[in-house]
Write a structure and sequence with these properties.
Elements (H helix, E strand, L loop, with lengths): L6 E7 L3 E9 L4 E9 L2 H14 L3 E5 L5 H8 L4 E5 L1 H6 L9 H10 L11 H33 L13 H7 L4 H9 L1 H7 L1
Parallel strand pairs: 1-4, 4-5
Antiparallel strand pairs: 1-2, 2-3
Helix pairs in contact: 1-2, 6-7
């Protein structure tokens, strides 16, 4: 089979560690080296140094949950990275075992048999994370407002009949301004018509 990349690495990622197999096939040598590392930043940087020492140009790993992200973030830009769907690796004929996953990925990469998944550029990934965090916070705010509304209703405080958003009253308590001004600002025309 034709060798596409002479010096490449296959990475099998787990939660607390990852194993890597570097495959080198040139006219003068053919060898494989395996190592295991932890997933802490210092370990990943030591791994990157090892790859540089061996002259590795390409690396591939399976997209395993979110475990691939720290590796990708630290290795991106230093090597040509490929994130592979595990289903694609399983579909390629050959035996797949946990002990030899890294070696198998390295072999498949070396012969150009792997297809990479799309990984957006770093700014897009950061924007996605920020947007997801904002959505979670907005959902949490709604949950808290509903819980507060329930507690008030259980205490026979009918705040919901006056204000649609119970959390507005938090502004009245926190701020040292005239409560009526905030009340009129937040409730808008419905409240004004009661006074006028």
């Amino acid at each position: 089979m034709k060798v596409e990349y002479q010096r490449c690495c296959g990475i099998d990622v787990h939660q607390a560690s990852f194993t890597a197999c570097v495959s080198i096939k040139t006219e003068s040598e053919s060898r494989k080296e395996k190592r295991q590392y932890g997933t802490k930043t210092a370990d990943i940087l030591a791994f990157a140094d090892w790859l540089h020492e061996l002259g590795v140009t390409h690396a591939a790993m399976e997209a395993t949950g979110v475990y691939w992200k720290p590796l990708w973030n630290l290795l991106e830009g230093q090597f040509q990275m490929l994130l592979v769907n595990p289903q694609h690796v399983k579909a390629i004929p050959g035996r797949k075992t946990d002990l030899k996953d890294g070696e198998r990925i390295a072999d498949l990469l070396q012969h150009g048999l792997l297809r990479g998944s799309f990984v957006p550029p770093l700014p897009i990934r950061q924007l996605r994370d920020l947007t997801r965090s904002r959505a979670v916070l907005a959902q949490e705010r709604v949950r808290m407002a509903n819980r507060l509304q329930k507690v008030l209703e259980d205490a026979n405080v009918k705040l919901a009949s006056v204000a649609s958003d119970v959390l507005i009253w938090g502004d009245l308590v926190k701020r040292e301004v005239e409560p009526g001004g905030i009340f009129l600002t937040k409730l808008g025309p419905a409240r004004k018509s009661q006074n006028g």
